[in-house]
Amino acid sequence: MGTNGSTMLEPLRQGLPPLDPSAVSSAASCSLPARYEAVGSARQFTRTTLDQWDLEERFDDVALVVSELVTNALRHALPSDTPRDQGPPVRLHLMRWTSRLVCAVRDPSDDSPVTRETDDDFSAESGRGLFLVDSFSDSWGWHPLAGALRGKVVWALFRLV
């Protein structure tokens, strides 16, 4: 907890989702442009994908987490001089295993994400996104992209059973 109303920044846990990537049963992804309207597109993509996978009942929680991850990528991971009409710098991935679903957002920043801890003051407009991700998903984290690829992936896992 922050003390005396101060805000603390905490590094997030780093690591891959605890799932075998070769055992994925379904996967879908979409590119998102550097515009805040992309959050609505990500939600629509999530709805369509979950409907196809017969997971409509999970839409509210998954869409909230997707919205937060995409918003964070657009707000914090893109340089301020990134043209907002440039090609898609952010990518959303949805992956389904038999009993789990992972949503992952890839962005071009090498900076590790941080969560801000505020003193139960939810009146602040920003700083709550990763708290919501933590509250609505079963686990989450991030990892840097491998090889010559720049950037990172922030992921959230949902149990389906």
TrEMBL record:
GO MF annotation list: ATP binding
Which InterPro entries is this protein grouped with? Anti-sigma-factor_SerPK, HATPase_C_sf, HATPase_dom
Q: Which Pfam families match?
A: HATPase_c_2 (PF13581)
Keywords from UniProt, A to Z, are: ATP-binding, Kinase, Nucleotide-binding, Serine/threonine-protein kinase, Transferase
Q: Where is the Histidine kinase/HSP90-like ATPase domain?
A: 32-142
- What Gene3D superfamilies does the annotation carry? Histidine kinase-like ATPase, C-terminal domain
**Which PANTHER family does the annotation name?**
ANTI-SIGMA-F FACTOR RSBW, ANTI-SIGMA-F FACTOR RSBW-RELATED
This protein is called: ATP-binding protein
